[in-house]
Amino acid sequence: MTAFGPITGDPLDRNRFPIDEWALVETRFEPSDLGVTETLFAVGNGYLGLRGNYEEARDAYADGTFVNGFHETWPIHHAEEAFGLARVGQTMVNAPDPKIIRLYIDDEPLELSTADLLDYQRVLDFRTGVLSRDLVWRTTSGKRVRVRSRRMTSFTERHLGVMQLEVTLLEGNAAVQLSSQLVNRQDRDVRSEQVEPAQGTIADPRKAEQFGRRVLQPQYKDLDEDAGRIALGYQTVDSGMTIGVVVDHHLDSPVPYRTEGRVEDDQGKLIYQIRAEEGHTIRLTKLVSVHTATRVPARELIDRCERTLDRANEDGVEAQFEAQREWLDAFWERSDVELPRQPDLQQATRWNLFALTQATARADGLGIPAKGVSAAGYGGHYFWDAEIYAMPFSTYTTPNATRNALRFRYSLLPAARRRAVDLSQKGALFPWRTINGNEASAYYAAGTAQYHIDADIAYAVSQYVGATGDLDFLVREGVDILVETARLWADIGFWRQENGSSSFHIHGVTGPDEYTTVVNDNLYTNVLARFNLRRAADAVTEVRESQPDAYDEVVRRTGLREEEIAEWREAAAGMHVPYDAKVGIHPQDSRFLDREMWDLEHTSADVRPLLLHHHPLVIYRFQVLKQADVVLAQFLQSEEFTTQEKRADFEYYDPITTGDSSLSAVVQSIIAAEVGYHELALQYFYEAAFVDLADRHANAADGVHVASTGGVWSALVCGFGGFRDHGAGRWHFDPRLPAGWDELSFRLTMRGTRIRVTVTSDALTAIVEDGEGEVTFSVRDTEVTAAPGRPVEVPLDGQGARIEGRPPNPAGTLRADGTVISATVPGR
Amino acid sequence: MTAFGPITGDPLDRNRFPIDEWALVETRFEPSDLGVTETLFAVGNGYLGLRGNYEEARDAYADGTFVNGFHETWPIHHAEEAFGLARVGQTMVNAPDPKIIRLYIDDEPLELSTADLLDYQRVLDFRTGVLSRDLVWRTTSGKRVRVRSRRMTSFTERHLGVMQLEVTLLEGNAAVQLSSQLVNRQDRDVRSEQVEPAQGTIADPRKAEQFGRRVLQPQYKDLDEDAGRIALGYQTVDSGMTIGVVVDHHLDSPVPYRTEGRVEDDQGKLIYQIRAEEGHTIRLTKLVSVHTATRVPARELIDRCERTLDRANEDGVEAQFEAQREWLDAFWERSDVELPRQPDLQQATRWNLFALTQATARADGLGIPAKGVSAAGYGGHYFWDAEIYAMPFSTYTTPNATRNALRFRYSLLPAARRRAVDLSQKGALFPWRTINGNEASAYYAAGTAQYHIDADIAYAVSQYVGATGDLDFLVREGVDILVETARLWADIGFWRQENGSSSFHIHGVTGPDEYTTVVNDNLYTNVLARFNLRRAADAVTEVRESQPDAYDEVVRRTGLREEEIAEWREAAAGMHVPYDAKVGIHPQDSRFLDREMWDLEHTSADVRPLLLHHHPLVIYRFQVLKQADVVLAQFLQSEEFTTQEKRADFEYYDPITTGDSSLSAVVQSIIAAEVGYHELALQYFYEAAFVDLADRHANAADGVHVASTGGVWSALVCGFGGFRDHGAGRWHFDPRLPAGWDELSFRLTMRGTRIRVTVTSDALTAIVEDGEGEVTFSVRDTEVTAAPGRPVEVPLDGQGARIEGRPPNPAGTLRADGTVISATVPGR
Which ipTM did the prediction report? Predict the structure, then answer.
């Protein structure tokens, strides 16, 4: 393994993070990587997210409280203008922070970085859904104090967060003071305009945009000291969104206490003072409710918060913890992936799935931000990550979550139609990145030009409908997405006759790999657009034949003309898919093979990732990939390529793929497994499973790599499990269990019936765990049907071909006809 | 002619602008196009420019006073960051305005837009170099006043401007008040951040960047009322440049007068009050001096201004007007182009040559801004326009001006070396646009990616050295430019073997045509880079053989290694020049012919120019040109292509060239003439000659199209005159006199000897007008030598081939092998 190859085993410091298959456990306070642990120990429910900041709010990389979709807008100022560039910047706002509970013992503050800690443990429990911390502190005066805290965001009440801090005097009497706060930290976002990146470096474009001005305007503040209730309401200056945050406090104390409170525009505070004695335990419970809206006055949101809290108070805080546990029991029952006797990977897998559900579970009518609600990286924007990386997990385990996410996309269709007009195109063009539906990508070459997002959304629609049979969604909403995206492809593409035959070409787009941009006939785009065109034609045909009335509605909504259907089928049939017979691979675009090749092997670590150390023009000039492109198309459109083709392409692209994108390792793992690079597949899986846990991209501090968490599930189920969904319920398994693994088992839900699939080295078994239906699928060449009480077992003869090691760099050796591509390290 | 074809004849309203072969004359005040006339009537000397604003400073599009190179810097904020993007914005600053002289008669102000004007004439005289205005005003009280003014920027004293206003009471006595001002108008530059372009429009990227803050910090102010002297000094906030402006006043009055003055940070003012009687003439003379610097305190610049003014005062103002006239007499003697009996084109030609010399004459050690000193369009930046469009005129008529301009480029070589490192390249990469030597192009695709600027500069160096024989410049400075630019090409290009043979390719660059960007093997770039590589190899070989000591110095300065010379020759010999045998043309880049074709014929006027109405991605997807690219290469490297090739290429590209760039028409005119499209050549020439005069691009208000003014000279001399300089003194003429023209004559200076060349329909004659040397050249196949007292006459048999009309759009009809490119109008 080189410094930049995938990792080959468990990379975690197990003294600090001991293995627990159901929790992430930390055993010491470590100030050097606070940003990473804030992300790893964040709690969220897809709507509300609380970064893993300590209650004391003193040692922090970034104090963060995020609400999905709660954003400010701002006019994008382009250094040089051009027609149609994105105009409306959108940035998720750091919401008022309810996490703070400061503890003073005899007026001495608890500060982890200086405190004498006799004991420390922090646990994010995947079954209870609660983050807890337990420490023993010896104060400077020698008193010993136990401090325990719990924190969760509720999966059952999406607007609710629960926090507790419990102080026990183990030794000595003391004056205990608890200062609970609700703080609008937005002014931390104000960046001095003078701070420019140091010479030779750049501001990392993947971080969030920061504002140079006040964002949240105070609209409401209130303090009810007796009830322990603090309320703050705000409106954003430009987007006009409103937010209400209300916090309720309950103090359990064995002795009487004094309370003191105050509220200002940007802060509410309640201070409790208790003269406690040795053995006393004092517990402060904070219930927080957050509501946001686009047109509702902040005052009204405060009312909603109060209703949420009243309800929670009625049930009591323990009921919240119980409901959380129940929700997660059900979640794991339908979603868990088990890796018996692989405790490190079992833990990492569950952390990923838990992080994924924390990013998505209660997004409800909102999108899925690239970092969930764990941080503001990528500005809280929604990308194709949602459809291609996050949704497969929910589609096959919690289909309703996918339905909500796709209905959110549907709500952006009007904006996408307008965007197509801006780009001189028919149909709809979904924004590459957005919160409010408008394109927010300020760099079109690696943004707007990624037209493939249209096909990605169509793909997710099709996958969801196929897996669930939800024709209601298809007929009322999904079909409109299919029609408008197909229209875009039919319009942007054109026919070209060459050597006597005619084919359909798509020019001037960027594929998933952002290390070459604005190319002609990007393979991924063409192959997915072909699928999109076919699927749209099939869908409208199905609807027309099966539901004539519904079809009339579709025609009314979309202006669909009969001849369009034929046009789409023709374009799909004539779609040009680049193939180079001499090299025997599919070029990533029409001119990919003409480029010089980047010599990654001799590229030193200090100029990686490439995008942070080279001008885009330099990178674009070479055969070098940020992430899988052809290889991803071959996973998503598995039936369209032979295994031989997949292997040849994988062998060509793998050595020139940097993996500078966290979206790459999971895809490389899946195809490596399919074509026979078993060890490499496992290495890529480790890489993906630990991308955040081991901070493999040195930016976990900016938030969870949500796409990768979803990809971890796909790598297990589709890579090692060998699952492929060929559409319309045609499921197929061709397992690739890694050497040394005893067993892999996972759940899939097909049209309401859930099966549990277990792969061992010599068999695949499937049993119906839930539901009344049958599930039919093939395992390699055998078709079987599992039904309630009727499990199936299919013997496996090995795990496919086996190729050792890694494919070598293809530079210099490729073409038999004397054509050679040289490999270079630019700038050396 | 369509709305967007070239014009076919004189487009000016000759009632308003009557023809005068030696002046631009305007006969009425017209408020509707003040921006255009401010540009047309601007005066400048290449250093100091005064827009054609009226003295009253009330009716104006933009009050402008510009000093070449006087700029503010600012950090470029990219909407999305990437490594190596331009960081330092540079914008020419509107300098303090000395032009204002307000006239009040009996306290009634003269305001042109409301005044009752009995007579009005404004004249920019190309022989005297003076802008004058003469009007008769009837005041509301019925008095008649004659107001005459003169204004010039001196060609002999580059820091000096002269203004006069003369008032004569034609009827009635009156109280005359003159208020002369010097105003720092910078606060007009402050743009409200709230002003965003209207929906569906964009801020024109060709206009100057405006500041949102104060730029000029007051450093000095003084008023000497008795001497009539006002002085203001400033320093820019970020670039730290300083400017001093001093104005002297002299009032001639037949009666005593009162004076009153004051000076503030941003304004100095002198007010003269005269109780004048009918018949009296009062004349106010203003002498203004401007000095700028990068490190000198403003106070010291004021001293310099005062010395300039003291000298001017000593000689008297009339001496300044005389010196101006003498300077221009000499200028026209060595530079004039005569078109007998073509008064409209004669006037337009002289306006262009006069505007060109106003933009360049006294730039001295500075660059040539795209708009000269007539306005701040394009931020006052220096582009390749200087080398390819402006310098040929000076190289062949005033070589010392080219020498200064190339020495300026040489001074930027250290910055260009650093820029190459930023772009992971060896050698030097000159910035696409700059004032201070740093890249200021914020949009790399149509900026930094235009690496061809390296070859353009090398081309100008070579042209200058060839025409002048100035080996001193070559050996001391020019060769360093050739070496470092050749190094860049050798490094950025790479060898590729294909079909058994090996060729040298340059990928990921943008050619002159900005309607396709970041392409592989752009023809212009490859052909000019080939020239650059060869020329560098030749130059260092020459120096090594003829001046071994000088060669050692070159090696010391540049680290030149022997083997590099061979490497350059090999790269040049192996340079890939795209040619498509099936279509029979040179594609603009490796994939140009694969693109869909834009149907310009059916593209309506309201979506033109294309760049202001289409997203770049849309434009880049098509075969459509902003400006000549292949065709320009065929002009600059004329010997490398056959006439047949030039004709085929011209016929292919001409119908798909929008001419949205003002750099295009002159080139199309030259090649149209060469290949036989005589009428079309003349139409393009009209288009170019009137680009500003008739505001053909609707942005003359933003300044003179300096490149086009230079191109007008090239179109006459190289297009109709058929002149080609094949380097090393090999001059050739193959005239193409337009039908209906009696005669065309022009001057060229070769190694100190000036010849006058006259082309008629049946002969070319040349006489030595100045100098002692002989000039040898060929006319078609005949080689001749002109010497002092020994003119030559070569008979001409016609004007070459003659093809009527315009070439048709090549869409749909091209390929014999069944390959068809379709033509489309995007968005329809």
Answer: 0.92
